């Protein structure tokens, strides 16, 4: 079986982002970028399925500017077999990304597509669901456990009140939640090996996908800040304050 | 006037159609009770200024339909009750919503953000070839919305010229609609898709209020050191009628189940009173704050005076939580 894994390059999760003064977005120049944490989990899951002998090949695909190649290299160093870079310099909405991934999937004919549940920059949580819908495939979102037996996929999902187990036939789209696995670190030998792995390049025009969007960002602003309220000296003082505010 | 609007809509005069919004809201429920976040979504929908229909999809969900019809601002409740809808699987709901959309040509389709709406609405949007707008926190007009990005560290105002606006709204950003309406009920149905199958569930059982609906939340972090020590928080929470939540660190350490996680990728809460106990904010600070910083009053209890959590708390107490929590619990008894 073959899997397609989508990976996104985003501002590192530990960075406190800064909103640009002109309100056009957040500052990305000179900011540390990394693979979206949920995408790392998707790559790790695919590699584990390969180690179990379920997957034969893992194709890591990323859509973005030239630097997205680094993100693909990271996936290759973690154990993906080859990469696909869809070159595009502007920010894309999930709908356009889903259409591009569909075009890639139609070429590569994967049995499953693994994506993170959300990117930590746009926080959309849409791409996997849109892709499944466009492909006419079932979906297993927010996966915290994945079992594959033949063409049967069983997934434990994280839902609001706890966990839910669903089953479906492959091909399907799986989106990963935090608790699915602990992604491995790429070792130096694997990073060296990854340099020899192939990354094909394409672009939206070549894939025949219109990526124009009817959703425009008007402005981006800082959220209102909270004022630190100071500290009290004792439990009694704390309780008195809460009583005074009639909170307890 | 209503008749005119309908007639205009029926004959597809696009200029008029654009002016009169009509919204489909997806109800959140468990087949026996309506989840209150549905009422926040109805409030959001009412801001769009058109008719609001509420879709209750489930199985044997008459009680939910009854409740749904009482939500102020809802014109019609669309009831879809069938075995294949019982578990609200994304593929089944998608087909049903698309069917409702075909019949009624809504300008907006939305639901309060939940595991269910997050799963199904992007599918619907893709089929309609429109973008989805996630976690809307403010509605400026029928096509302009505000949503948080980067874990709430920036707010983006977006304008959609898509034919249909599909969106999820953040429940904590809209008040719950009153319950003195009287909507009509109409039955709809769609054929089973059968793309996926529900097998089982494992729900965290609790007598305490639900996290996203609680007025008071007691949240614990890695500072609690064990799941046993969370019992101490439960005792305190029970005194307050509070829900109990956790930081990602506490969940990762196995002290609390996943569905108790508050943060960017967990639950977003905004209670009147939030106790952050043993949550330093050193690790995952941005992510945890994303889930709780709209709480009205934040109390932080931590033994480290330099803990970043004190930068957002209204009242801080620098002390050992193992002394503080039992004392607070005692104090409330009095």
UniProtKB/TrEMBL annotation, chain A:
SMART domains reported in the protein's UniProt record: ETF
Keyword flag Ribonucleoprotein: no
Gene Ontology cellular component list: mitochondrial matrix
Stretches assigned to the Electron transfer flavoprotein alpha/beta-subunit N-terminal domain: 23-211
Alphabetic keyword roster: Electron transport, Mitochondrion, Transport
GO molecular function, one term: electron transfer activity
Entry-linked CDD domains: ETF_beta (cd01714)
UniProt cross-references to Pfam families, sorted A to Z: ETF
GO biological process, one term: carboxylic acid catabolic process
Subcellular location(s) of the protein: Mitochondrion matrix
Chief subcellular location: mitochondrion
Function: The electron transfer flavoprotein serves as a specific electron acceptor for several dehydrogenases, including five acyl-CoA dehydrogenases, glutaryl-CoA and sarcosine dehydrogenase. It transfers the electrons to the main mitochondrial respiratory chain via ETF-ubiquinone oxidoreductase (ETF dehydrogenase).
Family: Belongs to the ETF beta-subunit/FixA family.
UniProt subunit comment: Heterodimer of an alpha and a beta subunit.
Protein known as: Electron transfer flavoprotein subunit beta
Species in which this protein is naturally found: Guillardia theta (strain CCMP2712) (Cryptophyte)
Automatic annotation (TrEMBL), chain B:
Membrane-traversing stretches: none
Cellular localisation: Mitochondrion matrix
Domain Electron transfer flavoprotein alpha/beta-subunit N-terminal: 23-202
Gene Ontology MF annotations: electron transfer activity; flavin adenine dinucleotide binding
Main location: mitochondrion
Organism from which the protein derives: Guillardia theta (strain CCMP2712)
GO cellular component term of the entry, any: mitochondrial matrix
Residues reported to bind FAD: 222, 247-248, 261-265, 278-288, 302
UniProt family annotation: Belongs to the ETF alpha-subunit/FixB family.
SUPFAM superfamilies: Adenine nucleotide alpha hydrolases-like, DHS-like NAD/FAD-binding domain
Keywords: Electron transport, FAD, Flavoprotein, Mitochondrion, Transport
Cofactor: FAD
Function: The electron transfer flavoprotein serves as a specific electron acceptor for several dehydrogenases, including five acyl-CoA dehydrogenases, glutaryl-CoA and sarcosine dehydrogenase. It transfers the electrons to the main mitochondrial respiratory chain via ETF-ubiquinone oxidoreductase (ETF dehydrogenase).
Bound cofactor: record note: Binds 1 FAD per dimer.
Pfam families, per the entry: ETF, ETF_alpha
GO BP annotation list: fatty acid beta-oxidation using acyl-CoA dehydrogenase
Assembly mode: Heterodimer of an alpha and a beta subunit.
Protein name: Electron transfer flavoprotein subunit alpha
């Amino acid at each position: 079986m073959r899997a397609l894994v989508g990976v996104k390059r985003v501002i590192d999760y530990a960075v406190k982002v800064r909103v640009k003064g002109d309100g056009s977005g957040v500052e990305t120049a000179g900011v540390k970028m990394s693979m979206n944490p949920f995408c790392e989990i998707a790559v790790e899951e695919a590699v584990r399925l390969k180690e179990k002998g379920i997957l034969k090949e893992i194709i890591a695909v990323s859509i973005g500017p030239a630097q997205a190649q680094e993100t693909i290299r990271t996936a290759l160093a973690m154990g993906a077999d080859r990469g696909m870079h869809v070159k595009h310099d502007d920010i894309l909405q999930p709908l356009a990304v889903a259409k591009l991934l569909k075009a890639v999937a139609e070429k590569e004919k994967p049995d499953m597509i693994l994506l993170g549940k959300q990117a930590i920059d746009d926080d959309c949580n849409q791409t996997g669901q849109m892709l499944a819908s466009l492909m006419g495939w079932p979906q297993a979102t927010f996966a915290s456990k994945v079992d594959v037996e033949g063409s049967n996929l069983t997934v434990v999902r994280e839902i609001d009140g706890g966990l839910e187990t669903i089953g479906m036939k492959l091909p399907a789209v799986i989106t990963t939640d935090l608790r699915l696995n602990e992604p491995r670190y790429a070792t130096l030998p694997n990073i060296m090996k990854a340099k020899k792995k192939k990354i094909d390049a394409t672009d939206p025009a070549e894939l025949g996908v219109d990526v124009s969007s009817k959703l425009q960002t008007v402005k981006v602003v800082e959220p209102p800040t909270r004022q630190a309220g100071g500290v009290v000296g004792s439990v009694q003082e704390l309780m008195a304050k809460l009583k005074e505010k009639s909170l307890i | 006037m209503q008749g005119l609007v309908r007639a205009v809509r029926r004959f597809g005069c696009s200029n008029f159609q654009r002016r009169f919004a009509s919204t489909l809201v997806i109800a959140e429920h468990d087949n026996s009770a309506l989840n209150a976040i549905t009422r926040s979504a109805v409030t959001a929908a009412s801001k769009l200024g058109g008719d609001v229909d509420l879709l209750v999809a489930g199985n044997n969900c008459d009680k939910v339909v009854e409740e749904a019809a009482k939500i102020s601002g809802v014109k019609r409740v669309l009831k879809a009750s069938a075995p294949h809808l019982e578990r609200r699987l994304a593929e089944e709901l998608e087909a049903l919503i698309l069917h409702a959309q075909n019949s009624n040509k809504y300008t907006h389709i939305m639901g309060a953000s939940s595991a269910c709406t997050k799963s199904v609405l992007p599918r619907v949007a893709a089929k309609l070839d429109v973008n989805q707008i996630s976690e809307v926190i403010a509605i400026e007009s029928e096509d302009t919305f505000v949503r948080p990005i980067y874990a709430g560290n920036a707010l983006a105002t977006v304008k959609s010229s898509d034919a249909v606006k599909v969106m999820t709204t953040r429940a904590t950003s809209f008040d719950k609609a009153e319950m003195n309406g009287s909507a009509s009920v109409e039955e709809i149905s769609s054929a089973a898709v059968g793309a996926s199958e529900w097998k089982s569930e494992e729900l965290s059982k609790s007598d305490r209020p639900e996290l996203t609906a609680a007025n008071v939340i007691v949240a614990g972090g890695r500072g609690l050191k064990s799941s046993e020590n969370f019992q101490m928080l439960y005792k305190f929470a029970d005194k307050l009628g509070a829900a109990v939540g956790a930081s990602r660190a506490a969940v990762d350490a196995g002290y609390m189940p996943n569905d108790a996680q508050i943060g960017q990728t967990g639950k977003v809460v905004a209670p009147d009173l939030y106790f952050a106990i043993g949550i330093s904010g050193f690790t995952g600070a941005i992510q945890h704050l994303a889930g709780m910083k709209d709480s009205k009053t934040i109390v932080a209890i931590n033994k480290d005076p330099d803990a970043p959590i004190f930068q957002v708390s209204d009242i801080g107490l620098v002390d050992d939580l193992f002394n503080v929590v039992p004392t607070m619990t005692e104090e409330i008894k009095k």
